[in-house]
Amino acid sequence: MKPATRSTARPQNAPRRAARLRTILRNPRILVCLAVLAFFLICAVFASWIAPYDPLEVNLRLIHKPPSLEHLLGTDISGRDILSRLIWGSRLSLLVAVFSVAIGVVVGGVIGVIAGYFGGRIDAVISRFLDIMLTLPSFILAIALMAMFGRGLLNLTVAIGLAMSFSMARLIRGAALGVKQNQFVEAARSFGYGDGRIILRHIVPHTLTPLVVYATFSLGTAILIEAGLSFLGIGIPPPAPSLGQMVAAGGVVIRELPWYSISSGLFIVVLILGFNMLGDGLRDQLDPRLKGEVR
């Protein structure tokens, strides 16, 4: 009987998922955000073909050149093409954001599910630990972790992911506590299912909606943290292009090269705004009850 039950459940769920996907794609705000983010994603994936120049090539004869047909955004204090460095910098920012959020989702999701499902002393210990860690902003935690790990792209990604995992753990803990009270979880226990099977088949799937929404917002947060760390000089090490580094370098010569820091700042703003608006749209479509609770 179990195989029959599984075979009939999937066709019933498929139309619901397709209808939900169509509803999401009909939202104009989501479509605009997806178009903007798709543009940045294409630039990131095909940076080596799209960028007109080598972002690391130094040409002392082209120092402080204003925007022109050859260099659409001009050149920096080392004669490097600013547009090429922006394209490669956005690529690094997206890579750091995606992988750091993935780390935060895995670490925070595991901690949150364990705390919410098992409860008792385990939940009490984890909750007190999360309370302590959440007293510090994610940016400060990332700075502390970078001081421990040292500079480097991998260390930066891990530091940002761990810094954001605590807020994700808090969110998933609350969702797991709510799911655990449902009757289908009690029914699974009565059938003799183990904790691992109940968590994987019942708890985790029902916590994906708030997790997806929060992860979307977290992508913008990760980009902001990476840019801030690079602005302070403890993020992506030079000469690799970084949006935060370019804002800092442009601020030194803001009078001579105003387009340098302005263009770098606009790239950061548009990326963060795109992810935040996408998160807003997904939140409203997937679960309106989450409105105002995921920030």
Protein architecture, described:
- By secondary structure, this protein is mainly α.
- The protein has a single domain (74-290), classed as MetI-like (MetI-like fold).
- It contains twelve helices and no strands.
- The model is unreliable at 1-12 (pLDDT under 50).
Fourth-level CATH superfamily: MetI-like
Total separate domains: 1
The residue-averaged pLDDT reads 84
What is the share of helical residues? over 70%
Which structural class best describes the helix and strand composition?
mainly alpha
Give helix and strand order, one letter per element, not per position.
HHHHHHHHHHHH
Secondary structure: elements and pairs:
Blueprint: H1 2-25, H2 28-45, H3 47-50, H4 82-118, H5 120-133, H6 138-149, H7 153-180, H8 183-190, H9 195-206, H10 208-232, H11 243-252, H12 258-286
Based on the model shown, name its key terms.
295 residues, 12 helices, MetI-like fold, elongated
Q: What does this entry show, briefly?
A:
The protein has twelve helices and no strands. It is mainly alpha-helical and 295 residues long.
